[in-house]
Amino acid sequence: MKRLNLVSPLHLILNLNLNLNLDLNLALLIGILCTMLPHVAMAQTRLVGSVRDASSGDGLAAANVRVIGTSRGTITNADGEFVLILDDLNSRLIVSMLGYKTDTVAVQQVHPFRCDVLLQPSPIVLPEIVISSEDPAIEIIRRAIANKRRWIERLKSYEMQAFTRQTLYRDTAVAAVTESFTKGYWQQGDTLREIITRKRQTANVAAGFNFASVGRILNFTDDEIRFVGYTFVGPTAIDALTYYDYRLLRTRASFGQEVFEIQLTPRTRTVPLFEGTVSVAGGSYALVGVDVRPGVAFRIPFVREGELRYRQQFSLCESTYWMPADIRIEGSFTLGIPGIVLPKIGFAQTSVITDYAINVAIPDTIFRKPRLQVDSAAARYDSASWAAHSVLPLSTDEEKAYKTLDSTQTLDVQFRPGGAAMTIGGDAGGLSSLLSHADVYFNRVEGFHLGGLASFDSLFPQVSAEARLGYGFSSKLTTYQLGLTWFPTHKRAVGIGGEAYRRIDHAPDRGYYGELFNSFTSLVSRNDYRNYHRADGGRLFITFQPSNEVAADLSFILEQHRESPQTTDYSFFSRSRQYRPNPPAAEEILRSLKADFRLGPKPVPFDFILRNSLEFSIEHSSPSFTGGQFHFTRYDALLTLGFPTFGHSYLLKPGFRIRATAGWSTGELPIQRQFAIESASGSFAPLGVMKAMEVREFGGTGVVSLSVEHNFRSIPFLALGIPFLYENSIELIIHGGAGRTWSNGIVPAPAVTDGWYYESGFSISRILDLFRADFTWRHSTPKGFRFTLGVAGLM
To answer: Residues near 553 by Cβ (< 8 Å), separated by ≥ 6?
Structure first.
């Protein structure tokens, strides 16, 4: 044991006063000072110091420095430096680290207050060579599994104090630092709740974006460990021996007892598992340290060259409970998005957890609040107060970041993407703004259409407007649209408006192919997906959108419909190929009432992110009710569902995606309002279309179609042991589809199906993270095979 003998300034003053010939008033003053002495002794004092290897003199990172008899403590930084706040000036410290002999230090009153400790490496005891089919680590893990319930079941709740620092790196340079002190609360059956009491950050981070906190304390004694969206099998789970191989590396004397260091190796690739080392204390067989990385089943979308390391040490509280003393997470990765280049991103989080209060009563109100709260006083940074409570010194690079990073060096500036896609998209504000107002496209009816558009979200208070004007160079037609919407309340849940227009409209479809995509396929391969007609008129409408998940519209439509013949046969390529004829349209006046309803999120282009939703619309036109010349009622429904089937432990779980459509009508449904089974457009086919069907091959006054697929993710390639495929997150999908159309015989309809149409196939997805290749067999006449491309989706 070491002893630091220093003298208290307060004791010097008292001794000096007691040796003087004092009058009564001065004696009274001394009495008051003496009564205050216990409170002075309890004033917090800042102890700084270092922990180094006694042999090499190198600083030891993450060495534990704790106050004996309390749960107060800290760890050293990467340079071996530490800061500890003491309540008692006569504290005794215990300094420990796996692989080193534990040391104790008795500290008396010191000024300046500093403590430097040299730790002696503990001798390594190699496992004895025993002729046996079982490694000694197996029995150690069995005992750890059997004994872990002894104290875990007694842990009902706790409070703690924590300090967390998060450092973000751009390549190797510090890009930002955020720090916070939090008060944490946990009880059995709930998650950790934290209140941020102090925080600070480098000048390039707004205080509102400082989310530094412990977040979640992983309990490696749990059977299931949730980490970055995955659920891992714990190293001491009941069935851990089924999933891991264990090997005893060495035995050391640490924490005053034997500590076994055990190598952890996954036995399968198809289940999220850790690899690395765990340290188990002899006697109690409790985990006292982990140093692990996720195994090969761990993959994050769009991440390339990713590394992630999780380290944690535990300290014994109240002679019973092994509680986390620190959490250290380090990682780096690059994003692999085609055409976009980002600097390598690195991050490090260190949390120091201290001042545990075990099995204390916690108010229920704590657990009715959000998981992370920010105290109103947290944002008021006081350098003196911060220094007085500091528990982890900054590294040299972090100190430099606080001095040099200013408000102009925001993260979006430091991590601004480059590459071909960003060059094409444009980074100049003026050009980008100009393109956002351009209305340019091409189709076989208008030819090249050149125009402009503008929207005004707040033209007047609670009023929005939009305008569009363009010209078709082949149709020689000027088109326009002008609309206004008035919102009675500032929340804009309800809108009332109208619009007037002259436009080239098209038969209803699911919106899989937008103007830009359709222009591309038209110009490249003379493949124009849509059927067009001219619509002159307008509509009045009421919109209702109380949330992003619910929307409804009611419209009264007044339009004059006319045919729009094909006016151009132009394309860049495929000169020998002809455009599909544009079907004729009924040239009459349409007056109809139309109601649209959506339950679920708005659609995302190409269904990149699957949504569970139900959409339904009904349109009614009757000369006796709405006026006009059409007489029909049209019903249309779309159901989209996605649900996992197995692999609950994965971030992106294997599962089904289902797209079902149904449409039916009564009366004389005009051809420009008739249904069609959605199909591939050229060689492109998103979810929900028949991949082996020709463009709008089947239609009619009624339709039913079903598209299903099951995404097995990368699990088959993990099971087969094909690193190139699973390391690049390549996925296997099985898909199929069926559909049927019919005609009511009242009006002419496109070719209806001869019974049911069927197709099936498989897909290889997440090629370059964004694309999928579909191989589809058509089982209906004429039978055949087709290859298409699509966009890989998330689920």
So the answer is: 541, 542, 543, 544, 594, 595, 596
List Cα–Cα distances, 23 to 20, 26, 762, in angstroms: 9, 5, 100
Q: Over 596-651, what HEC string results? A: EEEECCCCCHHHCECCCEEEEEEEEECCCCCCCCCCEEEEEEEEEEEEECCCCCCC
Q: How far apart are CA 400 and CA 394, in angstroms?
A: 9
Query: Which residues fall within 8 angstroms of residue 576, CB to CB, at 6 or more apart?
Result: none
Q: How far apart are CA 677 and CA 379, in angstroms?
A: 57
Residue 333 DSSP SS3: strand
Give the span between the Cα atoms of 170 and 205, in whole angstroms: 15
Q: Which of 210, 159, 162, 164 is nearest to 187 (CA)?
A: 159
Using a 10 angstrom Cβ sphere, with 0-12 exposed, 13-18 middle and 19 or more buried, the burial of residue 765 is buried
- H/E stretch holding 139 reads helix 136-147
Rounded to whole angstroms, the Cα distance separating 411 from 174 reads 11
- Start-to-end C-alpha separation, the chain: 59
Pairing of strands 2-4, 103-107: parallel
pLDDT in the model for residue 599: 97
> For residue 664, what are its two tokens?
């039916």
CA atoms within 13 A on the CB side of 466: 14
| Lookup: tokens for 737 | 């589809």
Scan for tokens 């060259």, then name that residue.
305
Phi, psi of 234, rounded to the nearest 5 degrees: -70, 150
Residue where the block lists tokens 């707004």: 206
Sign of the CA dihedral running 521, 526, 530, 534: positive
What does the CA dihedral 529, 535, 539, 545 come to, rounded to 10 degrees? 10
Backbone angles phi, psi at 76, to 5 degrees: -85, 155
Nearest 5°: CA angle at 177, between 176 and 182? Answer: 145
Report yes or no: 462 and 496 within 8 Å, Cβ to Cβ: no
What are 413-421's contacts with CB under 8 Å, separation 24+?
414/170, 414/175, 414/204, 414/343, 415/170, 415/175, 415/342, 415/343, 415/345, 417/340, 417/341, 417/342, 418/340, 418/341, 418/342, 419/339, 419/340, 419/341, 420/339, 421/337, 421/338, 421/339, 421/340
Opening angle at CA 36, ends 30 and 40, nearest 5: 120
* Amino acid 31: pLDDT: 38
**793 within 8 A of 607, measured Cβ to Cβ:** yes
Residue 243: CB atoms within 10 A of its CB come to 20
Cβ neighbour number for residue 28 with a 10 Å cutoff: 11
Sign of CA dihedral 606, 612, 613, 614: positive
Per-residue pLDDT, 13: 33
At residue 420, the pLDDT reads: 61
pLDDT at 18: 33
Q: Model confidence over 406-436: pLDDT tens digits?
A: 999 999 888 887 766 555 554 445 555 667 7
- 718 by DSSP, 3-state: which? helix
Q: Given CA atoms 706, 711, 712, 718 in this order, what sign does their dihedral have?
A: positive
Q: Which burial class, exposed, middle or buried, applies to 743 when counting CB atoms under 10 A from its CB (0-12, 13-18, 19+)?
A: middle
Q: Return the bridge partners of 166, or none.
A: 178, 349
CA distance 454 to 366: 49
Report field, pTM of the whole predicted structure over 0.70: yes
* Conformation bin of residue 229: beta by default, left when phi > 0, alpha when psi is -120 to 50: left
Low-confidence ranges of the chain (pLDDT < 70): 1-44, 89, 108-112, 125-132, 255-256, 419-434, 795
582 and 532 Cβ atoms separated by less than 8 Å: yes
Q: Which amino acid is at 724?
A: F
Q: What is the pLDDT of residues 623-666, one digit of tens each?
A: 999 899 999 999 999 999 999 999 899 999 999 999 999 999 99
CB atoms within 10 A of CB 332: 17
